[in-house]
Amino acid sequence: MFVHLHLHSEYSIVDGLIRINDLVDRVAALGMPAIAVTDQNALFSMVKFYRAAQARGIKPIIGADLWLAGEGAKRTRIVALCQDAAGYRNLTEVITRSYTEGQVQGVPHVQQEWLFARSEGLLLLSGAGGGELGQILAGGSKVEAKRRLRRWLDHFPNRYYLELQRTGRSGEADYIERALDLAAACHAPVVATNDVCFLHPEDYEAHEARFCIHAGRALADPRRPKPYSPQQYLRSAEEMEALWAHVP
Predict the structure, then answer these.
(1) Could you say which of 40, 131, 184, 244 would form a disulfide bridge with 12 (CB–CB 3.0 to 4.6 Å)?
(2) Handedness of CA 204, 210, 73, 80 (dihedral sign)
(3) pTM score
């Protein structure tokens, strides 16, 4: 059994194409028992998602993909999932605070201390290569990565996961190797996600077009940034299990 825990709907605007009703239909067709929606810095889709999932007998998992403020202008990703009502209340508080106190050039950011203070009922995913630990590992600092990871584990015991992704994007293989070593050294759990932005592989071109419109770049521009890949679709449980068969 596999459940997607990192997914952006159309409510993430630039970063997702997935319509809620289409998502629930696809999840039901794949026989998945649950699904998470983790839109960027918001819970705008929550009510519609919750009702649609429950109507189809699918467990809705509420969450958000957050910008985590770092030193200076640095920022990284972290995914927060609600375990219960307390977690939902804490996540709404953190997101609200990111808009009222944490905006940087119009983009809401959360502070690490806010999450520590509102940890009850929340489960965190590290953000894979785009997360704080991913960036530290990319810089080669194993000692600092261990220190930061242990701090997260102290505040989120058994509720902080090193996130692994294999979507064909640059740097993933090196990150996975380093993250697995770090997880073993610190006895930390890992979780595989697919950073889902669209339902089917053929939706990739439409997603790229939306991204280019937002970025003000031409789709045919060979020099434009390409942060997404065609593999960021809603893979089936069988596809994900085969993709990660080598990782327990």
Answers:
(1) 40
(2) negative
(3) 0.94
Structural domain includes residue 2: no
For position 105, what pLDDT does the model report?
A: 86
Helix (H, G, I), strand (E, B) or coil at 27: helix
CATH number of the domain encompassing residue 57: 3.20.20.140
User: Sign of the C-alpha dihedral, residues 86, 88, 93, 97?
Assistant: positive
In a domain, 199, yes or no: yes
The 8-class DSSP code of residue 220 comes to T
In which domain, by residue range, is 44 found? 10-243
Cβ neighbours of residue 220 under 8 Å, at least 6 residues apart? none
How far is the C-alpha of 45 from the C-alpha of 228, rounded, in Å?
Answer: 22
Residue 171 to residue 79: CA distance in whole angstroms: 20
Query: Which pLDDT belongs to residue 45?
Result: 96
Q: Does residue 209 lie within any of the structural domains? A: yes
Which ranges of the chain have pLDDT less than 50? none
**How far apart, in whole angstroms, are the C-alpha atoms of residue 109 and residue 66?**
7
φ, ψ dihedrals at 172, nearest 5°: -65, -40
pLDDT (0 to 100) of residue 72:
59
Laid out side by side, the sheet with 160-165 consists of: 34-40, 59-69, 75-82, 122-125, 160-165, 190-193
What region, left, alpha or beta, does residue 79 occupy, with left being phi > 0 and alpha being psi -120 to 50 degrees? beta
